[in-house]
């Protein structure tokens, strides 16, 4: 150890390191300025920030911002919405890529597999504005595809995007639709690592496709499933800004207003920097805690991430 | 091997489900294309499903003449091209040193980067930093604040690490320095993963939305994403006004225009997508190995 350390500072290694350090400096600066400096900026969550005094000279207020957040029914509702929308997206959405990967794994016609893959990966690359445009063209109250269908059958059009329950369903569904294909890639990669002889011998023993999936494919990708589940725990209090901002409307704001849109509206547009920083910090701390907790549980089963 | 009846049923079910899923991706796109090139009357009466009725290009014409579409398209191109160049350069400069076993404190630096994936300062403190640097209303706010994606960096680092060390040993024997080694040997053999990351960064910058709203106030500098979003929103505003005073002509054109606007956003992506697809599948698989 000691020898290795001494070797570490010898001249040859320093000479080798010099160009690498020069290369690395801009990147290090990026992380310090744009990632770690904002973490330091979290102190304004404990201050009453104003433009005149700046980050350093604004007065300290302790936990007042947090107390305000957790006593205000409006911000509590926003936390509740965030939790609801993200857990629905995580738990309802989680099986979809797995099922898709299993189905694709069973396809033997390569051209068919290629065509399906090409199509299902595509929505992942759409921006939420595009997805929003598609959603409106299908579910919109007037002039949309479904509204024409309603007119055709002489039924009163249903306001899908203006009803809280159907809005939540569309929100969760569009997220699943967008990411399902792309997320399936990881599971399909895991499946290529399964020994094909397992399927052969199972087939010999008379196991049908269904049994092969249950007893070979799913156990084979279980580590990947657990890994991705741990990672998704870090997002349990995180609902992206774009989907909500694009799909929301005043009629559903009681369920659609989430932390990210709250920070944008109240923080950036309403200039309440300290209060919304406290909200953002709450989100980050919960994410970190959950990630560590779930990882701890997974580690008990030798499946931990770190 | 004999295929049992049950397996046949399973296979047919499998194909049907996959065809349905594939159609769910394909049909909305085809519907938008049909809407954008159909006549207003046909859209209004709901005749347009997957095939254009009464072909014309009025919507695109109106978009180009009546909206700042061309300007924001060029803005999007500028943001994407410069952004991708900067991000690729920085990601390479991050991944290469971290992939070298002799690099000082590589474990510390790697952990320092990974930590930013699970804990961040958040929107407001980041905004204050950008504002403090005087970058508000400049595209540098978008470029600098997302210079390195840690996830992409890890993919690239893993790829570099898996390049056989014999290659760079041989190069070093010939007196090749780090910079030349990187440019002449490492990068050329890393083309597939570089293509993947280019796609990821390109899509991220092409679609950039929230940062645009936060950092860019000047409407002349807005990109396609923000313009199309405003078109969609103003249409819903229009709908409310139409409840009071129905005006069919305006309403119909708006439907087609909206579809056309969305298509202008998708089109460049559709053009490069088929060429890069085989790369990004490999790239994601690679990233999943050592996530």
UniProtKB/TrEMBL annotation, chain A:
GO terms for cellular component: plasma membrane. One of its GO terms (biological process) is transmembrane transport. It is a multi-pass membrane protein. Residues 79-294 form the ABC transmembrane type-1 domain. This is Sugar ABC transporter permease. Pfam families: BPD_transp_1. The chain crosses the membrane at residues 20-46, 83-103, 124-146, 166-192, 213-233, 278-298.
UniProtKB/TrEMBL annotation, chain B:
The keyword Membrane applies. It is found in: Cell membrane. Keywords: Cell membrane, Membrane, Transmembrane, Transmembrane helix, Transport. Its main location: membrane. Residues 73-276 form the ABC transmembrane type-1 domain. Coiled coil: none annotated. The keyword tRNA-binding does not apply. It is a multi-pass membrane protein. It comes from the Bacteria. InterPro entries: MetI-like, MetI-like_sf. It holds the Pfam family BPD_transp_1. The chain crosses the membrane at residues 12-37, 73-96, 108-134, 140-160, 181-203, 256-276. GO terms for cellular component: plasma membrane. GO terms for biological process: transmembrane transport. Belongs to the binding-protein-dependent transport system permease family. This is Carbohydrate ABC transporter permease.
């Amino acid at each position: 150890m000691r020898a290795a350390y001494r070797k570490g500072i010898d001249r040859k290694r320093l000479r080798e390191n010099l160009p690498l350090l020069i290369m690395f400096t801009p990147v290090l600066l990026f992380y310090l300025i744009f990632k770690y400096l904002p973490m330091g900026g979290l102190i304004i969550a404990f201050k009453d920030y104003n433009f005149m005094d700046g980050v350093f000279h604004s007065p300290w207020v302790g936990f007042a911002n947090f107390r305000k957040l957790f006593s205000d029914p409006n911000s509590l509702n926003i936390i509740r919405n965030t939790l609801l929308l993200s857990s629905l997206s995580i738990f309802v959405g989680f099986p979809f890529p797995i099922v898709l990967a299993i189905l694709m794994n069973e396809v033997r016609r390569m051209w068919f597999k290629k065509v399906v893959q090409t199509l299902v990966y595509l929505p992942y690359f759409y921006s939420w504005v595009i997805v929003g445009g598609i959603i409106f063209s299908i579910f919109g109250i007037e002039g949309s595809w479904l509204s024409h269908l309603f007119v055709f059958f002489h039924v009163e059009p249903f306001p899908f995007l203006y009803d809280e329950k159907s809005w939540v369903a569309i929100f969760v569904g569009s997220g699943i639709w967008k990411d399902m294909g792309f997320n399936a890639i990881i599971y399909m990669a895991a499946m290529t690592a399964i020994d094909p002889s397992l399927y052969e011998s199972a087939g010999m023993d008379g196991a049908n496709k269904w049994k092969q999936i249950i007893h070979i494919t799913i156990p084979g990708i279980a580590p990947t499933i657990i890994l991705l589940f741990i990672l998704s725990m870090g997002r349990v209090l995180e609902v992206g800004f774009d989907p909500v901002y694009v799909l929301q409307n005043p009629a559903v704001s009681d369920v659609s207003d989430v932390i990210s849109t709250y920070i944008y509206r109240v923080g950036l547009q309403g200039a309440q920097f300290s209060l919304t920083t406290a909200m953002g910090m709450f989100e980050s701390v919960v994410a970190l805690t959950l990630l560590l907790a779930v990882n701890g549980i997974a580690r008990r089963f030798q499946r931990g991430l770190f | 091997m004999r295929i049992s009846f049950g397996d046949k049923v399973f296979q047919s079910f499998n194909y049907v489900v996959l065809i349905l899923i594939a159609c769910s991706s394909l049909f909305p796109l085809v519907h938008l294309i049909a809407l954008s090139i159909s006549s207003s009357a046909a859209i209004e009466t709901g005749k347009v499903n997957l095939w254009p009725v009464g072909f014309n290009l009025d919507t695109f014409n109106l978009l180009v003449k009546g909206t700042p579409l061309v300007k924001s398209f060029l803005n999007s191109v500028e943001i994407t091209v410069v952004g991708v160049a900067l991000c690729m350069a920085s990601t390479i400069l991050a991944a290469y040193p971290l992939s070298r076993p002799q690099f000082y404190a590589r474990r510390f630096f790697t952990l320092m980067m990974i930590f930013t994936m699970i804990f961040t300062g958040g929107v407001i403190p980041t905004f204050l930093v950008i504002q403090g640097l005087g970058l508000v209303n400049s595209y540098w706010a978008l470029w600098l604040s997302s210079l390195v994606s840690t996830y992409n960096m890890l993919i690239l680092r893993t790829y570099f690490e898996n390049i056989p060390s014999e290659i760079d040993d041989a190069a070093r024997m010939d007196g090749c320095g780090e910079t030349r080694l990187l440019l002449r040997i490492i990068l050329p053999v890393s083309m597939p993963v570089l293509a993947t990351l280019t796609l990821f960064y390109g899509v991220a910058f092409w679609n950039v939305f929230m940062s645009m709203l936060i950092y860019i106030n000047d409407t002349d500098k807005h990109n396609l994403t923000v313009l199309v979003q405003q078109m969609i929103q103003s249409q819903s505003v229009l709908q409310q006004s139409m409840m009071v005073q129905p005006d069919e002509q305006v309403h119909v054109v708006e439907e087609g225009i909206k579809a056309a606007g969305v298509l202008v956003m998708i089109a460049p992506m559709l053009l490069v997508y088929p060429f890069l697809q085989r790369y990004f599948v490999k790239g994601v698989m690679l990233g999943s190995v050592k996530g």
